[in-house]
Amino acid sequence: MKKTLIKKISNQVPQELQHFIADADIYDSSSSPEARVYFIDKDGGYYLKCAKTGMLEKEAKMTQYFYSKNLGTEVLNYTSNNHDWLLTKAVVGHDCIDSEYLANPKRLCDTIAIELRKLHEIDYSDCPVMNRTTEYLANAENNYRTGNYDKSSFPDVLVIVQPKRLMKF
């Protein structure tokens, strides 16, 4: 994940979050035009996400839900005023594309398989936001059509599979 050191956060950070950013190095870690993501290098690290009002509400609920299932990080604060603000603890470790993991693809595959099995065994009947697949796929399709994605990460031809529908671009 790319992190660029910045001098300050561009939007007005709510008062209740000010102590998290005080005396900390702050990095822009954004990867989407819809939201700014800041890494706060303090006390093990935090991520502070800022988006238009109402845009992070479901994400806050789902992140807290995943945390309750031991699948994600803790939501420390969600505030919605002139903007949405979502503060989480940083997760310790590296993602699966880290060179350390890619150097041993068999172990990586086995680890991912084990973790996917655990994920599929979890009872999610109490999930606060159900049936998001159709919404996610519609958003992906719309983002592709409008060019709202990192084009360097994808080939010239993209196939999106939707339930009962295959679309080729």
Structure commentary:
It is built from 5 helices and 8 strands. A hairpin with a 2-residue loop joins strand 7 (159-162) and strand 8 (165-168). Helix content is 30%, strand content 25%. Strands 1-2-3-4-6-5 form a 6-stranded antiparallel β-sheet, with helices on one face. By secondary structure, it is α+β, with helices and mostly antiparallel strands. The protein has helices spanning 18-21, 57-68, 99-102, 105-120, 133-146, and strands spanning 4-6, 25-28, 35-41, 46-52, 75-80, 83-89, 159-162, 165-168. The protein is globular and about 45 Å long. The two termini are 28 Å apart.
What are its keywords?
alpha+beta
How is the topology of this model organized?
Layout: E1 4-6, H1 18-21, E2 25-28, E3 35-41, E4 46-52, H2 57-68, E5 75-80, E6 83-89, H3 99-102, H4 105-120, H5 133-146, E7 159-162, E8 165-168
Antiparallel strand pairs: 1-2, 2-3, 3-4, 4-6, 5-6, 7-8
Mean pLDDT: 87
Q: What is the percentage of strand-forming residues?
A: 15-25%
Order of strands side by side in the largest beta sheet?
A: 1-2-3-4-6-5
Gyration radius, to the nearest Å?
A: 18 Å
Number of helices: 5
Instruction: State the end-to-end distance.
Output: 28 Å
Order of helix and strand elements from N to C terminus: EHEEEHEEHHHEE
Largest sheet: 6 strands, antiparallel
Compact summary:
The chain has 169 residues and is α+β, with helices and mostly antiparallel strands. It has helices at 18-21, 57-68, 99-102, 105-120, 133-146, and strands spanning 4-6, 25-28, 35-41, 46-52, 75-80, 83-89, 159-162, 165-168.
